[in-house]
Write a structure and sequence with these properties.
The chain has one domain (2-135): Four Helix Bundle (Hemerythrin (Met), subunit A), CATH 1.20.120. 75% of the residues lie in helices and 0% in strands. The protein has helices at 6-32, 48-57, 62-74, 80-102, 106-135. α2 (48-57) packs antiparallel against α4. The longest helix has 30 residues, at 106-135.
């Protein structure tokens, strides 16, 4: 079952790749002059810093997601809770990206981030409990 954790991990990598592509498109008018308005301005200028910030966010808290998934895989832990929490994390990441890029609502962004935060804490709790149970032979 722990191998199923590869799929949400790949989904997060895909999200980061999509954000890199979106950032490239958002920067294209300024960098290459492609897609500029008639006055020469960038129609995506308001989104570029939000996409960039969100992309940076993919390398902060998600680090703990990837570490716990890798540990679960390496330790061959089979709790279904890992998979459920991992996909919950991905849903939270997608929502967080949408809110951060498409709105300026910081309160909503914080609420959505809570999904990611709690999912990762849950992953670590399941990891700890699983290793404790295994260590004590229960």
């Amino acid at each position: 079952m722990s191998a199923e954790l590869i799929y949400p991990m790949v989904a997060h990598v895909a999200l980061a790749a999509l954000l890199y592509a979106a950032l490239t498109v958002a920067r294209a008018p300024a960098v290459w002059g492609v897609g500029t308005r008639p006055d020469g301005s960038n129609p995506l200028a308001e989104f570029e810093p939000r996409i960039s910030a969100n992309l940076s966010n993919q390398f902060e808290w998600p680090l703990f997601f990837h570490v716990t998934c890798l540990l679960a895989i390496l330790l061959r832990l089979s709790e279904q809770g890992f998979v459920v929490l991992a996909w919950l994390f991905i849903v939270g990441r997608l929502l967080h990206s949408a809110v951060q890029i498409l709105t300026t609502n910081i309160r909503l962004r914080g609420l959505v981030f809570t999904i990611n935060f709690l999912a990762v804490l849950g992953l670590w709790a399941v990891l700890l409990l699983s290793t404790e149970v295994r260590a004590h032979g229960a």
